[in-house]
Design brief:
Blueprint: H1 11-21, H2 25-38, E1 54-55, E2 64-70, E3 75-81, H3 87-100, H4 105-109, H5 115-118, H6 127-149
Helix pairs in contact: 1-3, 2-3, 3-6
Length: 157
């Protein structure tokens, strides 16, 4: 598999990728399930308010996300909502949360689209599920670009 070095990735995302790289396919699924249990709860302001969030319809399970921007610092906080009975989707969301939330806009926008390949999940997870992770990352980037342009989707503005 040809890919650019992980040194172009944010440190916390590189750590996650390295964790997955050390494992066999079956163990990768177990690690993904561990991540699913670590997805942070939504802040109270978003509980039962999915209308304030964006649905990622490419995911096989219901998944909602939203970003909050700190323009002074140039950073974005990312929040996800996914049901407990959707561990793969929750696992992907937890990886993106751990790897990207709180980073500078430029760092998030620089993350390569082949993130799921870098995690080595293509043999362990169906292509349809992998497409969901790619869609999550794409939505995050699109929202940041729209915010920078002054018209973030799903955000007042």
């Amino acid at each position: 598999m040809s890919q650019t070095p992980n040194s172009t990735l944010p440190a916390q995302l590189t750590e996650v990728i390295e964790e997955f790289a050390e494992l066999e396919d079956r163990q990768k699924l177990e690690l993904l399930l561990e991540f699913s249990r670590e997805l942070p709860e939504l802040p109270e302001r978003y509980l039962n308010s999915y209308d304030q969030m964006e649905e990622v319809v490419e995911c096989q399970s219901p998944l909602f996300l939203t970003l909050e921007y700190d323009d002074a610092a140039g950073t974005a906080a990312i929040f996800f909502a996914a049901p407990p009975e959707a561990p793969t989707t929750r696992g992907f969301a937890a990886i993106l949360h751990e790897g990207l939330s709180g980073l500078r806009f430029e760092e998030i926008l620089a993350v390569p689209e082949d993130l799921s390949e870098r995690l080595g999940l293509s043999k362990a997870i169906t292509p349809l599920r992998l497409r969901g992770m790619t869609a999550m990352l794409g939505r995050i980037k699109r929202n940041i670009r729209a915010h920078q342009a002054g018209s973030a989707p799903g955000q007042p503005g």
